Batch of 3 targets.
Target 1
Amino acid sequence: MKLPFCAGVLILAALSPAQAQVASSQAPIQASTPRSLQTQPVGRPVARVNGTLLTDRDLLREMYTIFPYAREHNGGFPKELEAGIRDGALKMIIFEELVYQEALRRGMTVAPAKLQKAEAEFRSQFATPSLYQEFIRTEFNGSQQLLRDRIRRSLLIDALLKIEVEQKSTASDAELKDYYDKNPARFQYPESFAFQTISVLPPANATPEQLKEGRKRAEDALRQAKAAKTYEEFGMLAEKISDDDYRVMMGDHKFVERAKLAPDVVEALLAIQPGQITGILQIDQAYTVVRLNQHVLAGKTKFADAESQLRKELESQKTNQLRASLDQALRRKAKVEVL
């Protein structure tokens, strides 16, 4: 969602897509010059789409939409990312202009009631009428009509994208099932174990005495671990006495595939039930106590369980493909010049 930035005023955080386009394309540029840009945007043309000029102001606003964190750093973009952000922003403002022009070519219109509702919703985002009037004065030279035209433009863009992208990107139940059936490996999962650890790690090149001391610490850790009856109790103990990096996560390794575990660890985990503790496992010079939380055998995710996420993925892929195809189709019959 694109959010307007009213310097020294407020950030509006609940706009509809159409309102967001209005706000983003008309949001005031920060007074300070972005560190990564040589000059403050002044309306210099950066592209021409069938004769319509797009300026460096349009470009910078879109760059802020892509990388909003720049506003928090004097408008500066990371040098290693700036070229990519600029390229993406330029492509987006050209695409939106192409979509708008196509909507006009098709004779698409916005119903007066819909326009009035969008305008009212946009106005309601401002805390006071005076802030709204200041926005109109600053960004539209006080012209309510110019704002209304911008809102109409955004609504037309939304309407055409709904026809050409949103409605066509829906994945049917049959498509989902067909994908599921044709990609069985995608839904297979390996045998795995979810567990927590408490580890005692003697120093590198430990002396026999240090190893003996480490073993003693491990035996004390095992005694305390056996007294911990729950995930939380074991986790708090791990945070307190464990030497391994997982202590900051309550000793939790989440799920680990069987193939990625040492044979001795697998053997020990297979010998206990969820909620139980292994004995002391020695791997190299490390002493570890493991609590088994869950053992999952290899299997395949059921279609019903995969359906929701699969729908999101397929529809996201369709959306990206349809937008790219629409962009290419519109460019083929348009004159686009990057200046």
Target 2
Amino acid sequence: MTAANGRPDLVTIGITCFNAAGTIERAILSALKQDWPHCEILIVDDCSSDTSAAVIERLIASHGHARLIRHTKNKGPAGARNTILAEARGEFVAFFDDDDEALAHRVRSQVEHLTAYETRSGARLIACHASGERHYSTGYRMALEAIGSRGREPPHGPAVAEALLLNRHRPDWFFGAGPGSGSLLARRSTFQAVGGFDPALRRVEDADFAVRMALLGGHFIGTPEPLFVQYATSSPDKSPEKNLEAEQAMVIKHRAYLESIDAYHYALNWPKLRYCHFKRRYGTFSLVFLKIFLRNPLFATRHLLTSGPRRLMHERRITRGAQA
């Protein structure tokens, strides 16, 4: 955690922004309040059409360690994060989302957690995720426990890729809220080794990054303590159609791996079930499930029985809000 010159390692805090004029202030202010003594803050405005850039410039005007980078063409979340990685000087890179709020000790806690795990395990390809809490407009609050924040052994290696692509989780590993990029801190060298984020994916680019890291033998650890607040928002790029398109594109990208474990058909078709559920197309849902079931009866039944009730309960709590 200390560089050769005796100063604490530099941490790059990266914030991607797209049409977030109403929320970017809390994200930037929480970055400016971090108690880690040596930070730079890079904010990429991904060609917003609102006043985001003006808001950012006002907020960082008196802070020499914060810098705005403006895209002249929208590149999506992955492209914006890759710009941050290309510009970052820090030993570590932490990503903040443009509508989230980090506690003042988030960076410090994650750096300390990651370096302690390096010492203890000898691993060098590590993603450290922060636990947090998601707030919904209805008043419902949901705990976001980080992947690897519980248990004797954190998830690691190709079995994590299988969990992310097929929902086949080892029972002795804790996957929690999964590997979302808005809670992620890792060494810059880790991002370089994995190859950054895939700009062809407009959604699930963080899951794809985690799949590739897992296939390289990466480890996924998490802080038990909640370190950020995530505010649930909706936008056209979060539609069921966009999610289905991106999820299937990720599966196609990893076809060779999935075929090697005889799971490509399963992985390609399961996202259609989520889409049919969100669109309330229950007849099509039944037909798609039957198609999956005939080829993988055991896994399909187990998957539906484990994920289905959780999804329905989650949606009920969102709708009922604080009363749930």
Target 3
Amino acid sequence: MTEGAMTLMVAGMVAGTPHQAGASWSVLQWVLGLRELGHEVVLVEEIAPNAVVPAGASLDRSQNARYFLDLAGRFGIDRSSCLLVTGTTQAVGMSYDSLVEAAHRTDCLLNISGTLKDERVLECIPVKAYVDIDPGFTQLWDLQGHDLGLGRHSKFMTVGLSIGAPGCRVPTGGREWITTLPPVTLSHWPAVGEPPLWPFTTVVNWRGYGSIEHEGVLYGHKAHSFRDLFALPGLSGEDFVVACGIDPGETGDLEALSLHRWELVNPIEAAGTADSYRRFVGSSLAELNVAKSGYVRSRCGWFSDRSACYLASGRPVVAQDTGFGQALPAGEGFLTFSTVEEAAAAVLEVKESYPRHCKVARLFAEELLDSGEVLGRVLEEVLR
């Protein structure tokens, strides 16, 4: 390791749901970025027994393990990565004993969404930081008494750029939330020079967990936001392709999407591996980023790690405003909207001045999202 290097542990969801490559990349950016800074980095993912697929399979014969090990091998981190099952010593990659040994020499844990809960591992690590990538929902679940493991941590970070600021409706729970943009390892996400093959695109899960109501306000999901944008293809005259995880039983929404000329593609086929996800993003003309309605209504300032990948690829982003205000320089390369009419105007602006928006998109990533700068600041804040 280089002088001043530390041993760090990054925990997050990589293979809990195999082939959600966007979620995998959101964790990989931290691991790869910290390695580029010269640190020794251990990747760990803990999954519940009922998350092992197919049901009843041992971990080493599961789809989760196959996906996890393929991904770790692809990026040369297979010897410093561990997938384990909650409440057991079942592990693939590093053995459980090797993971515990690594924890004893770890300086800091960055626990994305608090996914690592194993007490034997946690108790060894002096500094434990909870990294919140679902702002608003995380704080409201905690307020409602759900055990997210926040009490196991000494530092708290969030990609909700407005958490704790005036105008944000999210309760802080008495904690100091350090805000951060999501990192992008630019060496793994170069600007794409080829003409796009896809039109405006995005990758979404239509629904996830349930909505939350707080003080008379319903904080919902992508489905709730998308419904306000159904008319966008007609208003803008542009095509939109969505790699969409949606249940076939959502017949009303599926019919509305088809009626309004939204093209849906299978997210596993389009972006189910780290490489296919990167190709899908880089082959797109731009991203239309639709936020969960909970992010919009809470004004939490959520910024998408997926949008960060588009910007790094030199692909402009048209993003729904979640209240990031002055924290982000919107206008060129990164355009925002609050209404479907504003979204249509932003889409047309991207098309009319496309080369300029592509150039500024990459500059946005280089200046604000570069993992070296972002993660350097993260470590300064967490370790001070």
